[in-house]
């Protein structure tokens, strides 16, 4: 008998090798050169006798995925980190007792485990070699493992051997030394299929196995493997193989097979493989069998085989949908349907193109990437210039949801067309960011909101309030009917930075009740509040784009004089006049002036907020808190006495002093000496809790 270390093939008592049956683990060995024999005399054959000739192979056909399976680490593609680590481990004699190989299907998990098994048991051509990262393939150990008849290399399918009894058999078998090889190697494929009891039964053996036993696990669902198992293994994550690497690999195999295939067709197969070598080889095998003998494989044939839409057709669909051209969009979808393209695949291709365009928009240098198809680089680069990131992100969300809708719909074509119609309609609508900018007017050169006709950059800050000048360019608006209103509704509230946020909307009055005229507003802020909830766009312009020059209210009506900014609509005076007539039932006159006027309500709100923050930052109690908590910041100062615009009530804007003279507000927005100001404790108050241990 041979020992577990000296397995020289010239041992006298070695048993003869059994004949090889089947292709083995890695495929058939290289066929021997045929011997030259004398031609046999012709034999008369009866009808029905099998005829053997050059057109009828002696062995069944083997698919490319098995024929070109890697046999050593040099043949593994796309797994450089794995190969480098294992080579160094063999060179330094640091091979672990258990490996966990994880990754998507077809990236080489089981193949890597078989190569490791050969590397552990290889004895070299002379029979004196040790574990090596480059197994020879000619020694008895390598040949036996290749033929899948080595008694010490056992490959089990954990999906069918998932019970605790199967693990007990392994635990009993590992106690015995190898019968022929250097190591006993257990390869458990799809190890995540083991039951919980089976995993628990394997824990102790996996943690402290005998020195001559190695475990190799392979799984596609690493999250289903318990952490107690993972902690006892060296984990290797096999990544998806890049498309360019797959394309080169498939081109080499096609050349070996003598098949002519177009580069674009190879690119389609590599893209459809989704990083899986086995999936790509299966598609390549199918593509090679498509054309008749003597013809090459064209891109159109592969496109038909995969059920893909033409790349140019997908680009036409995207361009038509992004410009909102519904007839062109539906016509392109009809052409894709005529070619046999699946509606779900068409939407998936559009989603992939959207991702490519977003990458072009985010990183323009990617347009020169040679791995990207030329059509995408040329037409896609030009289309990416006309689209923005928010528009592409919105298209991505629509397509992503549409793919699921098509998958669940009984009529896939109708569902896909509905998704494209939705995408084309959304292309004409502004993004949420554009809506916010139009409402706030915070960006220079922003387009006016719907219904406006003026445009331009936002003006600079106006002089201090109270400044007035002669009115010029007066424009009187129209009148209308009455309706309810009041400052309590609040549609938009001005916040710091000038961006509006949604506030509570006043509850609508039941339709059967008749609305009563509102009270005549006493201040301009009450006039602005009337537009809240009724005319959101008008309310936004009154808050951000209007400087009050003069306000005169009387029971029978009143007069308002305003200076508007360039981004305000030209018919703002008419809209405000009609609103006042509807809500109060009185006749108002709204005119436009060139006088500076007071700051806008949004500017006043920002100034008041900054003043409140400044006062809060100087209060002793706040200073003590800031000192106790380094890095703390004052984000907001809340005051229940403020109105919806963050300003004190209008009746506090001007008060009478003891001598009857008017007193102006201070910079904080509160009257001097007013106890109902910011609402802080007195300056000499001791901080609460500061004296506690």
Task: Describe what you observe in this structure.
There is one protein chain. The protein is 38% helix and 9% strand. It has 23 helices and twelve strands. It has helices at 64-67, 80-91, 109-121, 140-146, 164-173, 196-207, 227-230, 243-256, 263-273, 277-288, 299-306, 311-322, 326-338, 343-362, 374-386, 389-408, 412-427, 432-440, 524-531, 536-544, 572-584, 601-617, 620-628; strands spanning 98-102, 153-157, 184-189, 213-219, 234-237, 492-494, 500-502, 546-554, 557-564, 587-592, 655-656, 662-663. The chain is elongated and about 115 Å long. DNA polymerase III is a complex, multichain enzyme responsible for most of the replicative synthesis in bacteria. This DNA polymerase also exhibits 3' to 5' exonuclease activity. One of its GO terms (molecular function) is DNA-directed DNA polymerase activity. It catalyses: DNA(n) + a 2'-deoxyribonucleoside 5'-triphosphate = DNA(n+1) + diphosphate.
β-strand amount:
5-15%
Distance between the termini: 83 Å
Helicity range of the residues?
25-40%
| Category from helices, strands and their pairing | alpha/beta
How many β-strands, per DSSP? Answer: 12
The Cα radius of gyration reads 40 Å
| Net shape | elongated
Low-confidence stretches: 1-16, 30-55, 442-515, 652-681, 687-693
Question: How many alpha or pi helices?
Answer: 23
Strand order of the largest sheet: 2-3-4-1-5
Mean pLDDT: 75
Instruction: Profile the largest sheet.
Output: 5 strands, parallel
Quick summary:
The protein is of the alpha/beta class.
Task: Using brief descriptors, characterize the structure shown.
23 helices, DNA replication, disordered N terminus, 693 residues, disordered C terminus, transferase, P-loop_NTPase
């Amino acid at each position: 008998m041979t020992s577990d270390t000296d397995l020289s093939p010239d041992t006298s008592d070695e048993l003869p090798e059994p004949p090889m049956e089947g292709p083995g683990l890695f495929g058939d060995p290289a066929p021997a050169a045929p011997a030259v024999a004398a031609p046999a005399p012709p034999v008369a054959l009866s009808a029905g006798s099998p005829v053997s000739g050059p057109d009828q192979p002696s062995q069944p056909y083997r698919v490319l995925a098995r024929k070109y399976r890697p046999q050593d680490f040099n043949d593994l593609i796309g797994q450089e980190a794995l190969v480098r680590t294992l080579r160094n481990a063999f060179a330094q004699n640091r091979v672990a007792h258990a490996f966990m190989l994880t990754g998507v299907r077809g990236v080489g998990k089981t193949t890597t485990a078989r190569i490791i098994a050969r590397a552990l048991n290889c004895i070299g051509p002379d029979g004196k070699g040790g574990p090596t990262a480059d197994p020879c393939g000619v020694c008895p150990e390598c040949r036996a493992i290749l033929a899948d008849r080595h008694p010490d290399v056992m490959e089990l399918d954990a999906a069918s051997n998932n019970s605790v009894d199967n693990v007990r058999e392994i635990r009993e078998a590992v106690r015995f030394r190898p019968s022929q090889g250097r190591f006993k190697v257990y390869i458990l494929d799809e190890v995540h299929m083991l039951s919980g009891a089976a995993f628990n039964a394997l824990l102790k053996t996996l943690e402290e196995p005998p020195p001559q036993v190695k475990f190799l696990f392979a799984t596609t669902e690493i999250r289903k493997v318990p952490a107690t198992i993972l902690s006892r293994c060296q984990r290797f994550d096999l990544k998806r193989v890049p498309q360019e690497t797959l394309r080169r690999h498939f081109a080499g195999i096609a050349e070996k097979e003598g098949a002519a295939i177009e580069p674009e067709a190879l690119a389609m197969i590599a893209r459809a493989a989704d990083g899986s070598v086995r999936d790509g080889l299966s598609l390549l095998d199918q593509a090679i069998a498509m054309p008749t003998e003597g013809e090459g494989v064209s891109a159109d044939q592969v496109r038909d085989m995969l059920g893909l839409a033409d790349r140019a057709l997908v680009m036409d669909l995207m361009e038509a949908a992004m410009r909102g051209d519904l007839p062109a969009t539906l016509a392109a979808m009809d052409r894709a349907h005529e070619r046999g393209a699946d509606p779900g695949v068409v939407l998936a291709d559009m989603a992939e193109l959207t991702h490519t365009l977003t990458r072009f928009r985010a990183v323009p240098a990617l347009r020169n990437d040679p791995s990207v198809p030329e059509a995408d680089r040329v037409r896609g680069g030009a289309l990416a210039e006309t689209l923005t990131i928010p528009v592409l992100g919105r298209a991505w969300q629509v397509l992503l949801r549409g793919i699921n809708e098509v998958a669940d719909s009984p009529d896939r074509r109708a569902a896909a067309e509905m998704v494209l119609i939705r995408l084309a309609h959304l292309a004409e609508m502004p993004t949420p960011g554009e809506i916010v900018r139009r409402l706030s007017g915070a960006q220079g050169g922003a387009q006016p909101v719907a219904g406006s006709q003026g445009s331009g950059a936002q003006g600079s800050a106006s002089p201090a309030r109270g400044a007035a000048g002669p009115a010029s360019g007066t424009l009187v608006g129209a009148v209308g009917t009455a309706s309810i209103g009041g400052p309590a509704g609040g549609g938009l509230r001005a916040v710091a930075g000038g961006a509006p946020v949604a506030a509570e909307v006043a509850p609508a009055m039941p339709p059967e009740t008749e609305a009563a005229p509102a009270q005549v507003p006493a201040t301009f802020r009450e006039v602005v509040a009337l537009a809240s909830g009724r005319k959101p766009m008008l309310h936004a312009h009154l808050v951000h784009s209007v400087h009050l020059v003069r306000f005169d209210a009387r029971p029978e009506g009143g007069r308002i004089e305003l200076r508007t900014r360039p981004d305000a609509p030209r018919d703002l005076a008419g809209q405000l006049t009609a609103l006042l007539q509807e809500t109060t039932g009185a006749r108002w006159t709204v005119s436009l002036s060139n006088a500076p006027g007071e700051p806008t309500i949004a500017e006043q709100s920002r100034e008041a907020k900054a003043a409140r923050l400044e006062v809060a930052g100087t209060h002793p109690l706040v200073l003590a808190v800031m000192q106790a908590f380094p890095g703390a910041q004052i984000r907001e100062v809340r005051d229940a006495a403020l109105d919806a615009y963050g300003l004190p009530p209008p009746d506090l804007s001007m008060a009478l002093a003891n001598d009857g003279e008017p007193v102006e507000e201070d910079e904080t927005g509160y009257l001097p000496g007013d106890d109902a100001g910011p609402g802080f404790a007195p300056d000499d108050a001791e901080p609460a809790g500061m004296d506690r241990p």
